[in-house]
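re: ur question from earlier - yeah i can do the single chain one, its not a big deal. heres the input i used so u can compare w yours
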Amino acid sequence: MNIIRTTLLAAACSMALGGCVSMQEYNEEKDLNAQLQAEVDADKVTIQEQNEELTVSMVNEMLFPSAGAELDANGKKVLDKIIPTLKEAGDKRIEVRGYTDSVPIGAHLKQQYKSNWELSTARATSVVEYLQSKGIPGSRLSARGFGEFQPLDAKAPDTKDTRAKNRRTDIVLMAPDR
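and the output i got, formated as tokens:
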């Protein structure tokens, strides 16, 4: 799938239909696509612009060890690829959103988190703390956890694949007043 071509088409359509996508937003999306091309090609990352928000959605296995909330070395490498673009989006807010699947957390995790909601929030917070440690001002950052309550497709059958897709972390760039 040619992400760059899709991005160009989406930007052109949005501009033609009302000009919602500014040149800066288009450039941010293009830059993120280029920086994460290998991950996008492997279906580990999606990047989309919708409702004046640019969302980078990553499957949790790229960022966190299984059943963990602390970023692993690979997760930090992935985030390091997009930090320059996040820094250049100077006035935009960055909201990190954590999600889990609907499977209750196991006994090992229950020692630290009493629910998927807490786990998803801990993961989002871990990403926020890392972004701040790399120079993104805390005033632009926020973390939200949704647990299992916002699956990608609520009508999809409960399979291993759909559960894996629902375990994700989104980094959302939005206008400062949103």
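The first strand starts at residue 45 and ends at 50. not sure if urs matches, ping me
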